[in-house]
Amino acid sequence: MSADSPREIGERIAAHRRARRLTQIALATAAHVSYATVRSVERGARRPSDEVLEAIADALGVDAAQLRTGYAGTERRVHQALPALSEAIVGYDLPLGSPMRPPEQLANEIASAMGWRLSAQYGRVADAIPGLLSDAIRYVHTAPGAEHRDAARLLASAARTADALAYKHGAHDLSARLIDLMRWAADRAADPLLQATASYVRAETFFAARAHAAGLVSLERAVDAAPPPTGRTEAAIRGALHMRAAVIASRAGSADVADAHLAHARQLADQVSGEGTYLGTTFGPGSVRIHEVSVAVSLGPEHVDRALRAAHAWEPSTALPAERRSGFYIELARAQDWAGRPVDAFNSLKLARAVAPQHTREHPWARDVARNLRRFHRSDAESLSHFARWVGAV
User: Fold this and answer.
1) 368: pLDDT strictly greater than 80
2) Is 253 a residue whose pLDDT tops 90?
3) 354, 26, 53, 8 alpha-carbon torsion, rounded to 10°
4) pLDDT at 2 over 60
5) Average pLDDT value for residue range 40-51
6) What is the pTM of this model?
7) Do 361 and 75 form a contact (C-beta atoms < 8 A)?
């Protein structure tokens, strides 16, 4: 049970509703609940059930954990979706009929799901992506010749969005299968930029297996094969590959190689100037700075000063995806813990949770830091113990 009172939950819901300029009646309509329910929940007269909380959160476009501390319903929704994803892709190379959605609707809904992925709204993704993935596979097999490449691009986007659920929730075998599907779709689209993006995502399989040396080889081959950076999109895709290569090189213990990739990424970020999302991957100066912290942390505790310098007096812009901002605060917390700054480390974890609760809850480093803080700093406030329980550190 959440430690939040019904009044605290109601105040958060009301604040998000007002920020979106919705009336209580409009929120009730969007959430498919009664006006009386919204009114009583916002007054704190009743504690919303999981079903009502999820409906209101979806209508507000936020994760339910931002409305009720400790909420774990998103996890349930994700794990319910994983078998459906496995079923959807098992026969991806077989024509199994026509999609339920027309192409334009399918494209719009896949784009929405990608936005939910970037903002770490995994519950909303879980509800939508199995059906979207199934329709995208069917569309590839039934699309007229003129539409085939666009259909393959949609499938690649749907597979990547589904992979976010599998990878971030520990279903690494399913993640690898979804990445194979993404690569298959990218090849069918005959799109070099999409193929490069698939290589970027494929690095997850090497991270999961801790096969960092092999992952570095894969990413460097992808950099060599990527189109030259003649435009913003081309520069951003190549820059993202360099960012990810820098991190995997640092986990392989190759600091010089990591630094070389970071230097290339900085040059390309200057070229694109400003943050943007390209084929589902965000790239720009802020993303590179976050990866500078990630590289330093991945190199180990002896590089803690480097991590703290990279993060000093800087915070990620809200223009960056929620899961990337959350990841920054988690890695900063790890560096602060190593540096003997437990209060700062706990504050960073709380910032990570505020930005993307479900991403933080599923991140192994967030659990590690919370567990360490609780073990060695028992005099801290009870809120640390509460956080540790929420993140699964105890």
Assistant:
1) yes
2) yes
3) 60
4) no
5) 92
6) 0.89
7) yes
pLDDT at site 37? 94
CA-based torsion, 188, 189, 195, 200: positive or negative: negative
Q: CA-based diameter of the chain, in Å?
A: 67
Question: What is the Cα–Cα distance from 41 to 10, expressed in whole angstroms?
Answer: 5
Choose among 137, 150, 139, 237: nearest CA to 189.
150
Residue 94: beta bridge partners?
none
In-domain check, residue 326: no
Q: How far is CA 216 from the centre of its chain?
A: 22
Residue 140 lies in a domain: yes
Domain of residue 275, CATH code:
1.25.40
Mean pLDDT confidence for 38-57: 91
- 3-class secondary-structure state, position 222: helix
What is the identity of the amino acid at 241? L
CA–CA distance, 93 with 186 (Å, rounded to integer): 14
The alpha carbon of 57 is separated from its chain's Cα centroid by a whole number of angstroms, namely 18
- Position 378 scores a pLDDT of 57
- Please give the structure tokens belonging to residue 5: 């009172």
Question: From the CB of residue 390, how many other CB atoms can be counted at a distance below 10 Å?
Answer: 22
